[in-house]
Amino acid sequence: MKRAAGGEVAPLLDAQRIGLEARAARDDHLSLKLWLRLLACSTDIETEIRKRLRARCGMTLARFDYLAQLERHPGGLRMSALSRYLMVTGGNVTGLTDELERSGLVQRDAEPDDRRSWRVTLTPKGRKTFEQIAAEHERWVVELLGGIADADRHQLYNLLGRLRVQLSARHEPKEKRTP
User: Fold this and answer.
1) What does the alpha-carbon distance between residue 16 and residue 19 come to, in Å, rounded to a whole number?
2) Model pTM?
């Protein structure tokens, strides 16, 4: 990485390499630049995780996320709830469920109180598989963010937390907001 005078990182000239950040112009508002940088970082991390999941585990990120939701809910989830948690359509959940059921990672049972609903749970094989992949996933994330000092990671975590609070406050009725 080239450094400019004063030790700052010189702007990358290859717009393809920096992707989304290349859209920001010098005179753009700092908030726009920040948003593009957050998006670029998130996209870069997600792309690397997707590649590693596929190459090392033979799994897509969608399948990993699906299994993660079921791991958080040991009693299983109705497919409609799974769809909401994953923020995908019911058709997408049905397709993933079919694939994961064929692989022996999940099982689908009729909901006793509503025969039109299905509850999906991890099988023992699914739980073991997810635990192994989740441990790998955690190591990858630690590695990808490892170049940032602990204090800086804590600060970034806290700042992003404040941003989330500020953003969620926008959805509260005005009379409930604190100034």
Assistant:
1) 5
2) 0.77
